[in-house]
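Section: Multi-chain targets

For targets with more than one molecule, the full set of components is provided together so that the structure can be written out for the assembly as a whole rather than chain by chain. Components appear in the order listed by the source. The example entry contains two components.
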Amino acid sequence: MTRRLADLPTPALVIDSGALDRNIARMAEALPGDRLRPHVKAHKCTGLARRQADAGHYGFTCATIRECEGMAAAGLGTDLLLANEVLDARRLGALVAGGARVTLAVDSPETIEAAVAGGVREVVIDVNVGLPRCGCPPEDAGHLADLARNRGLNVRGTMGYEGHLMIVDDRVSQRRKVERAIEVLLAAHADVGGEIVSSGGTGTYDIHPLTTEVQAGSYALMDTAYARMHLPFRQACTILGTIIHADPRRAVADVGLKALGMDHGNPSIESADVLFCSDEHVTFVPHVGVATVGDRVHVVPAHIDPTMALHEAVWLVRGNEILDRWPIDLRGW
Amino acid sequence: MTRRLADLPTPALVIDSGALDRNIARMAEALPGDRLRPHVKAHKCTGLARRQADAGHYGFTCATIRECEGMAAAGLGTDLLLANEVLDARRLGALVAGGARVTLAVDSPETIEAAVAGGVREVVIDVNVGLPRCGCPPEDAGHLADLARNRGLNVRGTMGYEGHLMIVDDRVSQRRKVERAIEVLLAAHADVGGEIVSSGGTGTYDIHPLTTEVQAGSYALMDTAYARMHLPFRQACTILGTIIHADPRRAVADVGLKALGMDHGNPSIESADVLFCSDEHVTFVPHVGVATVGDRVHVVPAHIDPTMALHEAVWLVRGNEILDRWPIDLRGW
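Its structure, encoded as tokens over all components, is:
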């Protein structure tokens, strides 16, 4: 294995080991043990999930069936919540039959039937708390819980994701809105019962005193979108590139939009203005001087989750030293 | 293997076989044989590249070293052009030593030295024709060709990619601008020499009478960005999803931004308005009626190239019948 950062072929996804450790420790202090159910969609990497488990979080949140399968295969299937609706739950049923604990979100009679048909035994009722996506109307939650129990399912509680409130500049207004969303969720939970009230994310992790657990994921690696919220987590993940072209007006590195989640816009480069990304290039203007062909540059993604999904592996580094290579083994569906 | 489209787990990348065949045939008619050097970055799939080779195109364009390696491994390495600069060409040199023909773009003394050091023997001079990215100033092309020849390299000619002119609504103005860009390239070529003048893409494939070859790739599968140019190529690739939530105001399918290149914006769904994408969801409003949970939906990506890079494989289908499964085997770097 390559031992030095400087020898890595580029583009290369790299994690600063110190920053990762600090982010994980800081979150474990704020939300210890089962108060946090880390969302693996943010990194899709069992190597990183194991670090979160080592910090005391044994339950995990997943967004896809493949993520559940990979976590179970890695021995991290103690308590997996698939916080998403599926219409074919057979692969989840196979995991349960194999000894993993998998709890599935349901928000309709159809998704309840899919859970039963697939062999899943435990569910949470997914409640819409304002994000225009999945989740039942709050007033239907109790009825769906009854339906699920009548079909033999163990209803462990409720979840409601306030994704529309995750990245907000005004934290006072954010807190007020999140409180209202959680009021809605708790009212639904009163109709549903069960021990779980699951909600939240990195942008709201510190304003969830009333839920039983928070589903944050991005806190471990961070990105530029979350960075502007001044959370106590540091940028831990960048894409290392090589400058392949430089002239007095611009520089170009080999980190393009196939190496970057682009839904939140362009990435950032320290002391430079990013002009645009192409498939395999980022064109940028250094604030001072002219770049040098062959030099390395760190590119910071705007959105970490889809960035991870574009890479086969991530390199864990300390300074110029490579400590480990973690496959991004939860990709796909 | 699953034999019916309806049985595929979702999200699933699918190609309409008829549309693909027609697109490939139509392009082969317009630019037969070596007049087209299909760009594999658009699909990253040797299964599809083999169809292009069957249509008479034996030379291919690549954007990454991995694409060159995969094409050579698939027996499609007769004449590969890596239309991009690299600072470490050793893996390309290994391909050449193994019998593949690999020609590398160079635009600076440093990239010429990298070609020599890596064991690459053939290059083209990459000329900037207006896109603010790589490519030498046109007036430097002859000097760089001399330098390359002095270093023992075979200079096969020039390339210049007018990427800034690829998607333009006014085709009359586009043609005028492309002609000016090609004038610049041909002037540089007069200083460089060699048999290749390589340029163009899907958006300009039919206005390149003066170059020796066109590097188009997206024409085979298409996307919504190219669709608005009214080219004679049809949408051949979609992501099949399942509707996992529906209510009177909206529907949600399991095709999110991790299944879609998002740099050109949201995808499209026929007879519906797409509201937004999340990691694993697309939220949309059908024009008529209420969607049904469990129904399937085809999502059309805005940008095909990065969409392909997010999937492990693509399913070739005819109606509801699955004809083949092609791995997206040129991903990564």
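The CA atoms of residues 271 and 288 of chain A lie 8 Å apart.
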